[in-house]
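Render this sequence as a predicted structure.
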Amino acid sequence: MLLRSCIAVVSAFALSAVAAQAETITIATVNNGDMIRMQKLTDDFTAKNPGIELEWVTLEENVLRQRVTTDIATKGGQYDVMTIGTYEVPIWGKQGWLVSLDDLGADYDIDDLLPAIRGGLTIDGSLYAAPFYGESSMVMYRTDLIEKAGLEMPDAPTWEFIADAARKMTDKDNEVYGICLRGKAGWGENMAFLTATSNSFGAKWFDMDWRPQFDQAPWKETLSFYIDLMNDAGPPGASSNGFNENLSLFQSGKCGMWIDATVAASFVTNPDDSSVADKVGFALAPDTGLGKRGNWLWAWSLAIPAGTQKAEAAKKFVAWATSKEYLALVASKEGWANVPPGTRTSLYENPEYAKVPFAKMTLDSINAADPTQPTVDPVPYVGVQFVAIPEFQGLGTAVGQQFSAALAGTVTVDQALQNAQQLTEREMRKGGYLK
């Protein structure tokens, strides 16, 4: 009896010691489906790492970007792990704001990361963020509605075909809209879509001397095409719709087509969430015959701010969440279709994943994007749906507000473009790009 009591006391002491030593790491992330799923699976991580506890801050995309940017720039120290994108990583890494991730463990297999994705997260040969999922954009469409319209979707459609199909599929009396596209203002919301689209129309943000180009014909063609199409075939209130709003519309059967992130494919084909799961096809993002498609390149990645006091614990979490083992965990719990896509070569070599209907189109879309030569004409910047300069975060959102207002009908296309030209010129002069 005395021995049992002693063991109980020792055990209680050991448990309290572990609890006292437990580190809590705070993770800021976006409210996308893959991240929500990750939170539900973190019992696997905490079981393997009993000394680490996790605290989540889950935010809407635009809010997340504002919060983490403010925190890292001011060295606020609120977060130990941040979900950031391909835009922020090279800029913040060069500023010394991120911890290098070259030591995520011998079994992490950094060379398995897809070159197109890894390249955007690497500075001077060192990885500064680990990709949780990678994406491009593509056409997701209703196979039944395209057939009803008497059309057949090409694997590589033109914008002309997309516009014609959208108008033919629209049935506003029954709340079926031929196309759903981002309209919500934000550099990573409507401007991600519109910048990528503008590339295919021959437009660009800046010429080789950093002069803004919104006063040139290709941008007018891009914005006019988009707004005319959305007025004719888009849902009401489109200027408030971002990724999540359009996902909901598509899943409820209200969109004939949706051109957006390839990562959405697993959600629109999931019968638990999507009423049209068995009626979805995929195609490459459209072009106009100028040699560039309207698709982007992005990775939502996990990074560690240089100001954290818990870098080692944070690295353990980042390694777990972006590992081959995590992909296998998701597959075992939710099926291969729900594995975070676009990060690892081994995933696309896996015969089980090859059976997923959107796997090949996702990889083809990622490989079709070239951030080093994003536009028809030469430009001085890198980035497909963004311009990789620090000023772009503010600029992209300000221009996005103008274009969202044009979609809402509160300003004309010409006014929106004139305002975009003026505000961009002003900021580029202030930043020393223009004399």
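Summary. The first helix runs from residue 2 to 21. The chain is about 45% helix and 15% strand.
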